[in-house]
Design a protein that fits this description.
Layout (H helix, E strand, L loop, with lengths): L1 E9 L3 H8 L6 H4 L9 E5 L3 E8 L4 E10 L2 E9 L7 E8 L5 E9 L36 H20 L10 H4 L1 H18 L2 H29 L9 H23 L4 H25 L2 H4 L5 H18 L12 H4 L5 H7 L1
Length: 349
């Protein structure tokens, strides 16, 4: 029987590490890069326990584990595995670090099985090293870097630069077809939002639905404010500021209602989604009001404003599926972590 103990230090707060250890939703494979999303499946789950099948597909390693936890300790027991005998355990305890951050103490009591046994990984993606072994430990909860966020950022910059690069000196009725393309673009946005509401479920669904709903409602309010500030009802160029806000608002409110109704157990995710949507909506408002009447009276006739809204909507989806998304919620960290602050409640007694 192999008995190994070690400690891993990280700059992450204990509560962040604890939430990563007890995360058994779609984000688990993102939080622990050594887990394969294709191999992960929740078999059973209770309030403080879960049975899951997980593994590393590239190594052909898999296991059925029963997790039981009570802050600050979580224990995983092998029920069936390709590289370990049944009955083996991992015990992981989170504690504050001496100079900040946290320390994850791991105690393993398992017997390897088969060729892959000596390099068998823990369920959390922390590798252990046997004497003279070749396995190395990775940092706790290291998120995968995803290019999608960079692509969305570049798309936003491209949309912002679009009117200045393509129409540096717009003349009357230049590219007037762009004004006619506004409605199809808005219909694409509405249809896309409905599809997103239907496709994404669980924790990610709560973040994305709420974020997209808040963004659409905020954008509708921005267009109304724009109409009041610089609009002119006698000019057809400002018609989008009249007709688009109700459509966007209704779609946004529908998303918020669906998010709340389907995510009553995901309060943290709903708050995070609202935070993301609010930040992006404020960015949309700043750009729209800065562009002013010129955005609608001259080419591209507000097309760039609506195109930016589409890109921001895609940004909500990307952020809602990104392992780095929690860093965006730093100002709301305590509020978001509230429902699972088990350790804090115990210490206060």
């Amino acid at each position: 029987m192999a008995k190994v103990s070690y400690a891993v230090e990280t700059r992450l707060a204990p509560q962040v590490v604890w939430e990563a250890l007890t995360e058994f939703g779609p984000r688990r494979a993102d939080l622990w890069p050594d887990l394969s999303a294709s191999s992960f499946r929740v078999l059973e789950r209770g309030g403080s326990w879960a049975r899951v099948r997980e593994g590393t597909a590239s190594l052909g390693i898999w296991s059925v584990e029963r997790y039981e936890w009570e802050y600050p300790v979580i224990t995983a027991t092998v029920e069936e595995a390709s590289a370990a005998q049944p009955g083996g355990t991992w015990r992981m305890e989170v504690s504050p670090g001496p100079t900040g951050g946290s320390v994850l103490t791991v105690k393993m009591d398992r017997k390897a099985k088969g060729f892959a046994g000596p390099c068998s990984r823990s369920p959390t993606g922390v590798f252990w090293r046997r004497e003279h072994g070749a396995c190395s430990r990775t940092s706790v909860g290291r998120p995968r870097r995803r290019p999608e966020s960079l692509v969305v950022l570049l798309a936003m910059l491209a949309v912002i630069a679009f009117p200045f690069v393509v129409f540096p000196h717009p003349r009357t009725n230049d590219a007037s077809w762009l004004a006619d393309a506004q409605w199809p673009l808005v219909l694409v946005e509405i249809a896309g939002a409905v599809v997103v509401y239907a496709v994404f479920r669980g924790e990610r669904g709560a973040v994305i639905r709420m974020g997209l709903g808040v963004l659409l409602v905020g954008s509708a309010l921005t267009l109304v404010v724009s109409l009041l500030v610089f609009g002119n009802l006698s000019n057809d160029r400002f018609a989008p500021l009249v007709f688009f806000p109700p459509v966007l608002a209704i779609t946004g409110i529908a998303g918020i209602v669906v998010a709340v109704a389907a995510g009553v157990r995901h309060r943290r995710e709903l708050i995070l989604g609202a935070y993301i949507g609010l930040v992006l909506a404020l960015g949309f408002a700043a750009w729209t009001l800065t562009r002013g009447a010129r955005a609608w009276l001259q080419a591209p006739y507000g097309f760039d404003v609506l195109l930016l809204l589409l890109v921001l909507g895609v940004g909500v989806v990307v952020l809602g599926t990104s392992p780095n998304v929690w860093a965006l919620a730093a100002p709301l960290g305590r509020l978001i972590a509230g429902p699972r602050r088990t350790g804090d409640r115990r210490r206060s007694k």
